[in-house]
Amino acid sequence: MLQEPIIATVILFALIAVGEWISIYTRARVPMLMTAMLGFLILTWIGVFPENILELSTLPALGAILIGPLIVHMGTLMRFKILKKQWRAVVIALSGLAGALTLILSLVTLIFDFPTAASGVGPVSGGVVALLITNERLTELGLTSLIVVPVLVQSFQGVIGMPLAVSFMKKYGRMFMAEGKEAAAHVGFDDGEAVQPPRFSIMKNNTIKLFVIFVLAALGVILGDLTGIHFTLFCLVFGVLALNLNLLPKSALESANSFSFMMVALIFVIIGTMGGISPQDVIDNIPAVLLILALGITGIMGGGLIASKLVGWHPYKGMPVAMTALIGFPGDYLICEEVARSETNNIKDQEKLFQELVTPMLIGGFVTVTMASVFIASFIMSLI
């Protein structure tokens, strides 16, 4: 029965739906993505899910090509006037990485060795690309026994990072909503922003809108291949420009009634990163992995705390931005949605809090996961 793609898809979809229900029931204290990832891992270990369930469901293949369009959509959430004020998010994100690198490279090297420390640095910085760079270098050097370390770090850091970030964001959300319009003015939220119509009337058509989003995503991929710069950066820039030039409306995929399905397809891909990890892998490498995770998370939180105070942001707002290195996309976006939903009781306040949270989180995520992690992994692994 599981050989039917629709059956395998429904089973995986049920895992996501249960995670969403738990998130709503716990008021976002248990993030949906964390539940889905852990549930997938445990159910695979005990034999409830076959190891090839993702292959049986064809939705992950679709999700893999939707990253570009979803990043374009994220760009359509950001007006120039708000982006100008996000330099603080960049400083905080980089400070968090600096703290993590300092602790991991010093203490893990002292307790284990430098290759072990280096193998955990890239994944803690965030991103699948950094993981691939790390694994390729370890294979090239014949250190294949260490490959499971970055894989485990990459797999479990989000499970730890998401509830920590949510805890800080919920506290900040309550403060932000209590302060009301005064706080909104301080951080640059325009409560009375007028809805700008698309520049061309044909862009009101959902099919045409989707086509343009996919075209921009494809251009981002092409430019990424030509320049060596990660394609998601181009997709983000195209989305920002499309919004601010009124080519696309704000929240473009939502206006095209396509966002929820695309996000679910991408979540299938994300939970698949837990595949291939066996209980024995965890047991054999757990000392090094736990130390790297503990030091990495401590360094990120410490760096984020110090930088938040220096740039004038409340730590409850700044520290989750630093922790985007642990979470990445789409986790950073999803927890903003969940926190905004849990800390408000009407649509207007929910949107207000969501906009306050999501822009710095997305900026922080792109700084850490998309940009800095690739540079850090490449440089540190070259030192082995």
Structural overview:
The protein contains 20 helices and no strands. It is mostly helical and 384 residues long. It has a single domain (5-382), classed as Na+/H+ antiporter like fold (Up-down Bundle). The N and C termini lie far apart (48 Å). Mean pLDDT is 84; it is low at 181-192.
Topology summary:
Elements: H1 5-25, H2 32-45, H3 53-56, H4 59-65, H5 67-75, H6 80-83, H7 87-111, H8 114-125, H9 128-140, H10 148-179, H11 181-187, H12 206-227, H13 231-244, H14 252-255, H15 259-271, H16 279-311, H17 315-322, H18 324-327, H19 331-342, H20 347-382
List keywords for this structure.
mainly alpha; Na+/H+ antiporter like fold; single chain; 0% strand; 384 residues
